[in-house]
TrEMBL record:
Gene Ontology terms: biological process: lipid catabolic process
Organism lineage: Eukaryota, Viridiplantae, Streptophyta, Embryophyta, Tracheophyta
Protein name: GDSL-motif lipase/hydrolase 6
Pfam families in the record: Lipase_GDSL
Keywords, comma-separated and alphabetical: Hydrolase, Lipid degradation, Lipid metabolism, Signal
Region forming the signal peptide: 1-23
Family (UniProt): Belongs to the 'GDSL' lipolytic enzyme family.
Organism of origin: Heracleum sosnowskyi
Signal keyword on record: yes
Length: 359
């Protein structure tokens, strides 16, 4: 995971200098992905049925549902707060406000385009009305084409990307058996990641953070897949996730070589999850297998908030909030590792990325 870091750092030093750690050179974050990042876009999409805009979602931090698929904040939210720039609005909310005149321009601290349930394949959960990564990119490009985002702001922005969990999970659903082998399926996903990075760079992105998938095969919702084990993680699914993650890591490593003046960072979410899974008590967790909120086996057979759901007494002791998603406590720990750690984020952490002066 850590090989050739020195060569990456060399490429960074060619075009970048470091400023004092307290002087963040980032004013905005632009976020693309799925439910791990979605801050409520699906809520503002009337055609979308993948929703978390009902109790008890949001209950721990916001004290009301926000459309986030957890009980509080996500990694993107925490990092923005670490930066001191405030949490990004969902694109569709900001667009609605601009159209109805309640705000005159798009937010200057960035925009969240992520859509829960989406993937790198356009077909992934398309029946739910989600916004695939290609359309999220198009939404951003349209804002740029219409000069609704200041191009100078992009030089002082972080770009976050995470996608693919829904693609991998859906590969194993029995309703529509895949025609591609696991390797070919993952390679098609990686082609889309490369295209995303290429396009986002052309639009002005220079600080690009790519995040790996977590161990998708460990989510409580695996109980919905016929033949998936309950007493352990689903190995076939995790192998696909790890294969994809290796490809994303290579893409991130090549960003400064392929795109002059840019920086690529890789966040190994998978490794962070493994740490919590193997040493839960060291991280304040007592349960790393079941969802805090849901019902059925592992509380993974019913979405949190749906009729008949049950909820744990202390979400902070659970790795998972609902059948797919981490608790806010998990997100907070993860954010700290990605922000200031050096073991699970390469070649530099997000704090160092925010402190770089790109020339």
């Amino acid at each position: 995971m850590e090989r050739r870091v020195a060569s990456c750092v060399f490429f960074l030093l060619v075009s970048i200098s470091v400023t004092p750690a307290f002087a963040h050179n980032v004013q905005a974050v632009f976020i693309f992905g799925d439910s791990l990042f979605d801050a409520g876009n699906n809520h503002y999409n009337n055609n979308c049925s993948a929703q978390a805009d009902f109790p008890p979602y949001g209950s721990t931090y916001f004290h009301h549902p926000t459309g986030r698929f957890t009980n509080g904040r996500t990694v993107a939210d925490f990092i923005s707060q670490f930066l001191g720039i405030g949490i990004q609005k969902p694109f569709l909310e900001a667009q609605q406000e601009v159209i109805n005149g309640s705000r005159t321009e798009y937010p200057s601290n960035g925009i969240n385009f992520a859509s829960a349930g989406s993937g790198l394949y356009r077909a992934t959960n398309s029946d739910l009305g989600v916004t695939p990564i290609q359309d999220q990119l198009q939404q951003f490009q349209t804002l740029m084409d219409q000069n609704l985002v200041d191009r100078k702001l992009l030089e002082k922005s972080l770009f976050f990307f995470e996608s693919g969990s829904n693609d991998v999970f859906n590969y194993f659903l029995p309703f529509d058996p895949p025609t591609l082998t696991p390797d070919a399926y993952v390679q098609t996903m990686l082609t889309e990641v490369e295209h995303f990075v290429d396009q986002i760079y052309k639009l002005g992105a220079r600080r690009i953070a790519l995040f790996s998938l977590g161990p998708v095969g460990c989510v409580p919702a695996r109980t919905l897949i016929p033949g998936a084990p309950v007493n352990r993680c689903f190995g076939k699914m995790n192998r696909m996730a790890k294969n994809y993650n290796k490809g994303v890591e290579n893409i991130a490593k090549n960003i400064p070589k392929k795109y002059p003046g840019s920086v690529g960072v890789f966040g190994s979410v998978y490794s962070i999850f493994q740490l919590y899974h193997t040493t839960p008590s060291s991280h304040g967790m007592s349960n790393v297998t079941d969802a805090c909120c849901g019902d059925g086996t592992l509380r993974g057979m019913l979405q949190c908030g749906q009729e008949g759901y049950k909820i744990c007494d202390n979400p902070n002791e659970y790795l998972f909030w609902d059948y797919f998603h981490p608790s806010e406590h998990t997100y907070k720990l993860m954010s700290k590792s990605l922000w200031a750690g050096n073991k699970y984020v390469h070649p530099i952490n997000l704090k160092a990325l925010a402190n770089l002066t790109i020339t």
